[in-house]
């Protein structure tokens, strides 16, 4: 069996938290899917509420302290990532965003990520597509196609969330099992060619454009 590591980031503020509950369900389903593929996963859960002050200190000092740095290391070194945020004011929480603000540049490049959210109404489900997914795309993460949103009514029946959770977990497990993450975002550590832009090749660096003419 191949050893795999999953990091689970929960941005819930209360205890108990529906955000953590959804994170646990996604984690359990992802572990089951990886084991079915012949992998041996271990899980590291990060409760951001426990590190709120450390994150604020990192923002103003530019450095992670001895408590926060191991958390950042566990997330950036994981083979796969599950991130779950509550939806506040129509978007991800400030605590959730702060965590990604302090990560090293390109730390999530090429990393398989499953995104999920909880909210007080199903109307907030689109926040995953117009807020969370663009954030992860900006960070160059390999976000799985299925994102999972849980509204209050989804907790009423034990089976309400299961199809979405299992589908998203299977997609994450497929990416994790088929990808060996490298810091530069390539599967095997080889250099990544810049994307081509249009029929005439890549776009020259901006500094080069400024030097022309």
Labels describing this entry:
213 residues; alpha/beta; seven-stranded mixed β-sheet
What would your notes on this structure say?
Helices cover 38% and strands 19% of the residues. It is of the alpha/beta class and 213 residues long. It has one domain (2-211): Rossmann fold, CATH 3.40.50.360. Strands 1, 2, 3, 4, 5, 6 and 7 form a seven-stranded mixed sheet that branches. Strand 1 (2-10), helix 1 and strand 2 (39-47) form a beta-alpha-beta unit.
| Gyration radius from CA atoms, angstroms | 18 Å
Query: What is the CATH H-level superfamily?
Result: Flavodoxin domain
Helix content: 25-40%
Q: Report the oligomer.
A: single chain
Spatial separation of the terminal alpha carbons = 59 Å
Poorly predicted ranges: 180-200
| Number of beta-strand segments | 7
Would you tell me the structural class of the helices and strands?
A: alpha/beta
Largest sheet: 7 strands, mixed
| Order of H and E elements | EHEHHEEHEHEEHH
CATH topology name, in short, is Rossmann fold
Mean pLDDT: 87
């Amino acid at each position: 069996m191949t050893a795999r590591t999953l990091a689970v980031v929960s941005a819930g503020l209360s205890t108990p938290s529906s955000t953590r509950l959804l994170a646990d369900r996604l984690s359990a389903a992802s572990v089951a899917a990886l084991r079915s593929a012949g992998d041996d996963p271990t899980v590291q859960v990060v409760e951001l509420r426990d590190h709120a002050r450390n994150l604020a200190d990192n923002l103003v000092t530019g450095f992670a302290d001895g408590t926060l740095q191991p958390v950042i290391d566990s997330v950036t070194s994981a083979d796969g990532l599950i991130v779950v945020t509550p939806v506040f004011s129509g978007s991800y929480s400030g605590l959730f965003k702060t965590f990604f603000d302090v990560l090293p540049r390109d730390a999530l490049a090429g990393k398989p990520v499953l995104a999920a959210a909880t909210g007080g109404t199903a109307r907030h489900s689109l926040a995953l597509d117009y807020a969370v997914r663009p954030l992860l795309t900006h960070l160059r993460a390999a976000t799985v196609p299925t994102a999972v949103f849980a509204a209050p009514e989804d907790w009423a029946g034990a089976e309400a969330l299961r199809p979405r959770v299992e589908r998203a977990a299977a997609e994450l497990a497929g990416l994790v099992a088929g990808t060996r993450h490298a810091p530069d975002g390539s599967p095997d550590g080889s250099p990544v060619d810049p994307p081509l832009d249009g029929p005439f090749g890549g776009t020259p660096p901006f500094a080069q454009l400024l030097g022309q003419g």
